[in-house]
Amino acid sequence: MPVHFEHIAQGRNIPGIFILNYKLTIGQNINELILIAEASLDNEYQNRILNLPII
Predict the structure, then answer these.
(1) What is the pLDDT of residues 13-46, one digit of tens each?
(2) pTM here?
(3) How many domains does the structure of the chain reveal?
């Protein structure tokens, strides 16, 4: 089991993890991350694992 899943199961916190989409270009993935960073609260993605793009 990946370490980040173990941390969540143990009640520990992890920062948000974003899994990049291999079908998008690097630039598109970066734009997605910039949009998320600009439009999100500091802890909005804490303990979450999400795939890009977030629609």
Answers:
(1) 888 889 999 999 999 999 999 999 999 998 999 9
(2) 0.74
(3) 1
